[in-house]
Write a structure and sequence with these properties.
Radius of gyration: 19 Å
CATH class of the largest domain: Alpha Beta
CATH superfamily of the largest domain: Response regulator
Number of strands: 12
Oligomer: single chain
Number of domains: 2
Distance between the termini: 37 Å
CATH architecture of the largest domain: 3-Layer(aba) Sandwich
Largest sheet: 5 strands, parallel
Strand content: 15-25%
Order of helices and strands: EHEHEHEHEHEEEEHEHHEE
Length: about 220
């Protein structure tokens, strides 16, 4: 099965070059020049990896990277002419999985993609406290037993788990679950309540999910 690549690149010639080259290695490529359109696509479709330029219209590439990583664990490779060490460090601080300075040989990009996807595959099962996330099966196990979560509950709980001991806002949870942007807070609260019931967590004396007044929730297990 072809790996799906989302390429965000406003240089059409460069985008065509990368796209045509990667297709020769069996990748399925979707190219966007506008990062806002790309983010909308990413929230509605499944991709295996994002290739991200930094010099973009409407939104800086670093902000795009931050936005992606705030709601998803999809691998991101930054592909940019801004190749100085300061930019590279900032990119990695925002969660980028690799940083490739232009100009480069397209073959190097293929090798970087393969390496990043290989690392991501090895780390697919993530163990956090009493839980284990199996990304391939979209299942979360509690002490070895699979939880019967809805797709939305899986996305919400997975996001909470991977942000252990960090307060996350309801807006972040809405993004993580790919819910409509106008989703009401009480809808998120309802889903969290359902998750608590399924993991046997008492909201008055939480072992795992703590309510953070004025913000949202935090996984504390």
């Amino acid at each position: 099965m072809s790996k799906r690549v989302l390429l965000i690149e406003d240089d059409r010639q460069m985008g065509d070059l990368i796209s045509n080259y990667l297709k020769g290695f069996g990748y399925f490529i979707t190219v966007f020049e506008d990062p806002l359109e790309a983010l909308n696509e990413l929230s509605n479709s499944d991709y295996d990896i994002v290739i991200l330029d930094l010099m973009l219209p409407n939104m800086d590439g670093f902000d795009v990277c931050k936005k992606i990583k705030s709601s998803s664990d999809i691998p991101v490779i930054i592909s940019s002419a801004r190749g100085d060490i300061g930019n590279k460090i900032h990119g990695f601080e925002l969660g980028a999985d690799d940083y490739l300075a232009k100009p480069y040989e397209p073959r190097e990009l293929v090798l970087r993609i393969e390496a990043v996807l290989k690392r991501a595959k090895k780390g697919e099962n993530i163990k956090i406290s009493d839980f284990e996330i199996d990304k391939e099966a979209t299942t979360i196990y509690m002490e070895g037993y699979p939880l019967e979560l809805t797709p939305i509950e899986y996305k919400l709980f997975s996001f909470l788990l991977q942000n252990q001991n960090r307060a996350v806002s309801r807006e972040q949870l809405v993004n993580a679950a790919s819910l409509p942007i106008d989703t009401k807070s009480r809808t998120i609260d309802m889903h969290i309540s359902n998750i608590r019931q399924k993991i046997g967590d008492n909201p008055k004396k939480p072992t795992y999910i703590k309510s953070v007044w004025g913000v949202g929730y935090k996984f504390i297990g």
